[in-house]
Amino acid sequence: MSADLQDAPPRRSADTIFRLAVASCASVVLLLLGGMLVRTTWSAWPAFQHSGIGFLTGTTWNPNTGTFGALPYIYGTLVTSVVALILAVPVAVLIALYLSEIAPPAIGTYLGYVVDLLAAVPSVVYGLWGVFVLVPFLTTYLWQPLSNHLAFIPIFAHFASGRNFLTAGLILALMITPIISAICREVFRTVPNDEREAALAVGATRWEMIRLAVLPPSRSGIVAAIMLGFGRAVGETIAVAYLIGGFPHITAHLLQQGSTIAANIALQFNEAASQPLFKAALIGLGVVLFAITLIINVAARLIIRRGNSR
Amino acid sequence: MTSQARTGGDVSKSRHRRAGRTAAVAGALGIALLAAACSSSGGSGGGSGSGATLNGAGSTFAAPMYQQWAGEYNSKVNKNVQINYQAIGSGGGISEFTQGIVDFGATDAPMSANEQSAAQSSQGSTVLHLPMILGAVAIIYNLPGVSKLTLDGPALASIYLGKITKWNDPAIKKLNPGVTLPSAAIQPVQRADSSGTSYVVTSYFSAISPAWASQVGVSKAPSWPTGTGATGSSGVAAAVSQTKDSIGYVELGYATSGKIPFASLMNASGKAVAPSTTSVEAAAAGATLPTDITALKLNLVNQPGAGAYPLSTATYILVAQAQKDANKGKALKAWLLWCLKSPQQAESTKLNYAPLPTALDKLVVSAVNSVK
After folding, report:
1. How far is B148 from chain A (nearest CA, A)?
2. Count of C-beta atoms within a 10 Å radius of residue A283
3. DSSP letters of B216-247?
4. How far apart are CA A155 and CA A92, in angstroms?
5. Residues B19-60: pLDDT tens digits?
6. B246 close to B139: Cβ distance less than 8 angstroms
7. Which of B283, B238, B30 is nearest to B136 (CA)?
8. How many C-alpha atoms does A132 have within 13 Å on its Cβ side?
9. How far apart are CA B58 and CA B87, in angstroms?
10. CB contact under 8 A, A273 and B221
11. Which residue in A has a C-alpha nearest to residue B218's C-alpha?
């Protein structure tokens, strides 16, 4: 014992213990992920077996007749999340640029706190505010006029309800903007000041400095921020359940009601408790949601890698 | 400097530790004293006075009544019995009761055969349906300038089937002579979550519309052919009061407290009747009562009688006939029997519900007495 201690410098044994501790914590993540995937797929198997590929391609979801086609929910999830990203990403990146590059330090710091605070607002608060404030406001001042004047664009045609794909997308955009923005700001801050000064020294304007020195090294960080935002949008449940109108169908008219995977799980799981096949189908929806997130994340990694190798 | 600071830190830390230990000891003492007090009061109070906390969950329809009864019972009858009721919806009530999370469930829709067998196998006992009060589902609408509206079952079912789409449809006009109806598109609103109120509405539609019965059927969570889904009774009330030209359904109390106009409905005897305590009682008067105390399910939808409101319903509490915890079982039984007494039943009218008819009340009392 004592010989061992004398031979090995104490620091190295501490290192080993530390490495083991860290590695075992990290492996918990893998175990959790793998365990969840196996377990949910196992529980959902009866529904997959019952509906076959129709579980993914079917357009009718009627638990009362045992028909489980998840496509309208997949469609709703993707549409609302993409709408949210289109609205949120430009705004979020610009906010982050302002905070880290342009705002006077004092203002930047305090505005930064506000952004962080917004990111911490629980989604049910956004949902309630959406129901009582946003929906009536949007219906009167945005959706109704849009559908009256721009009905030749299919997206705005056939207005049906204030609770629709676009309302849900908009609330999701509000929820993910602070997240994307907060991460982007941190990413921009990691750019060494030397590079900014170098750009300014050769006569770049502030915009050119941002374009040449700040944005290129931040690209993968921005993509990661967008992915985190997308992840939250895809999985957001309560606010969307309140605001999307809970009516699963596939349409190009985004001012009509829809539904999403997460919202539907939340709305229907109570009903499913005593019906094994229905319960399996809802867990199956969870597996599909999991798969969507996985595909998006892998795709994002590939994009980043290709961008870096160029 | 540093050594001084360090010792200072140590002292304050140990002081903290000591303070923490003292607090812990005091806390433990307090708990022990409390426990002693509780057990002694339980002992001296005899069987009926023993303390218990009962948890229940379910129906939002009946929540205001159960919460009032729970509070009153604790403050006026038995201080040692605490009843917590969570309004999570009928579907949630059945599901939490089945999983054994709560001591009693509450639902407006009687359990299906599947639900009943799942609940009984997990409770290891027969599960009783106990009707507690009666109520009405109001058809609420938002039509600026229209303060009086009459609808009938077929028209209402056609609206929710998407077959009647305009407010000035001949079928609606015929029922409302002298009322100017707009040509606007009807915006139907329904519950997106699993709901006993939806169950009442769909059983009414299925009773009067063969098209509804074959296409959609009776369900707490039907697959709606059209319309916007909102969450909870208050969600539907909010959606209707916000959306021009909309129509929806909620328990009567949500309509009156939100000051949302509601329609009269043509009943089975061809009379237009508004939802109220009286018209619900009239519906119950015409209904056939069940006789088996282990299956006290009754159908109050579309009952005969000139004054009967067609969207009437009973709302149930679910309990296991063989209680696992004798102490809790005794407390639950005492509370339920108290709720079924006439002063408590009469209170229901203040909240826009209706008391159980006397004959039914007797049946429910004997069902509660069968709980062991």
Report:
1. 24
2. 23
3. T-S-SS---SSSEEESHHHHHHHHHHHSTTEE
4. 24
5. 444 444 444 444 444 444 433 333 333 344 467 899 999 988
6. no
7. B283
8. 6
9. 5
10. no
11. A64
Answer whether residue B14 shows pLDDT above 70: no
Residue A152 and residue A261 in contact, taking contact as beta carbons nearer than 8 Å: no
Residue B166 has what DSSP assignment?
Answer: B
Instruction: Check: CB of residue A256 under 8 Å from CB of residue A80.
Output: no
* Residue A5 clears pLDDT 60, i.e. is over it: no
Greatest C-alpha distance within chain B: 95
Count of C-beta atoms within a 10 Å radius of residue B124: 10
Query: What are the pLDDT digits (tens) for A115-172?
Result: 989 888 998 999 999 988 999 999 989 998 998 899 899 999 888 888 999 999 999 9
Sign (positive/negative) of CA torsion B202, B203, B205, B210? positive
Q: A274 contacts in B (CB within 8 Å)? A: 94-95, 98, 112, 114-115, 118-119
Length of chain A (residues): 310
What token pair was written down for B238? 């909010």
Examine the pLDDT at A299 and tell me if it is beyond 90. no
| Mean pLDDT over each residue of chain A, to the nearest integer | 89
Q: Do A68 and A275 meet the contact criterion of CB atoms below 8 Å apart?
A: no
The DSSP secondary-structure symbol of B325 reads S
DSSP E strands: which ranges in A38-187?
Answer: 61-62, 67-68
- A164: which DSSP letter? S
Number of Cβ within 10 Å of residue A172's Cβ equals 31
CB contact under 8 A, A270 and B94: yes
Tokens of B330: 């005794």
Q: Is the CB of A161 less than 8 angstroms away from the CB of B243? A: yes
If you count them, how many residues does chain B have?
372
Dist CA A293 CA B107 (whole Å): 37
pLDDT value of residue B5: 40
Indicate if the pLDDT at residue B277 is higher than 60.
Answer: yes
Q: How far apart are the C-alpha atoms of B191 and B254, rounded to whole Å? A: 14
Residue B134 and residue B284 in contact, taking contact as beta carbons nearer than 8 Å: yes
pLDDT over 70 percentage in chain B = 87
Q: Which residue of A has its CA nearest to B89?
A: A270
- The pLDDT tens digits of the residues spanning B292-336 come to 888 899 899 999 989 999 999 999 999 999 998 999 999 999 999
Nearest CA in chain A to B232: A242
- The pLDDT assigned to A54 comes to 93
Which amino acid is present at B175?
A: L
Q: pLDDT per residue over B55-113, tens digit each?
A: 999 988 898 899 999 999 999 999 999 999 998 888 889 999 998 899 999 999 999 88
Does A3 score more than 70 pLDDT?
no
Q: What tokens does B158 get?
A: 């056609």
First-to-final CA distance of chain B: 73
| Closest-approach residue (CA) in chain B for A244 | B229
Query: Long-range contacts made by residues B174-183, C-beta under 8 angstroms, separation at least 24?
Result: B175/B150, B175/B151, B175/B266, B175/B272, B176/B148, B176/B149, B176/B150, B179/B146, B179/B148, B179/B149, B180/B145, B180/B146, B181/B143, B181/B146, B182/B143, B182/B245
Q: Considering just the CA atoms, what is the radius of gyration of chain A in Å? A: 24
Token output for B58:
């379910």
What pLDDT score does A176 carry?
Answer: 94
Partner-chain contact A275 B114, CB within 8 Å? yes
List chain B residues with CB under 8 Å of A260. none
- Pairing mode of beta strands B187-191, B272-273: unpaired
Instruction: Determine the Cα–Cα distance for residues B137 and B148; give it in Å rounded to an integer.
Output: 17
- A260 touches A246 (CB < 8 A): no
Between CA B97 and CA B102 the distance in angstroms is 5
In this structure, what is the dihedral angle of CA atoms A246, A273, B313, B234, given to the nearest 10 degrees?
-40
pTM of the predicted structure, to 2 decimals: 0.81
CA distance B139 to B311: 9
Beta-carbon contacts of B335 under 8 Å, excluding residues fewer than 6 positions away, are B54, B69, B70, B73, B81, B83
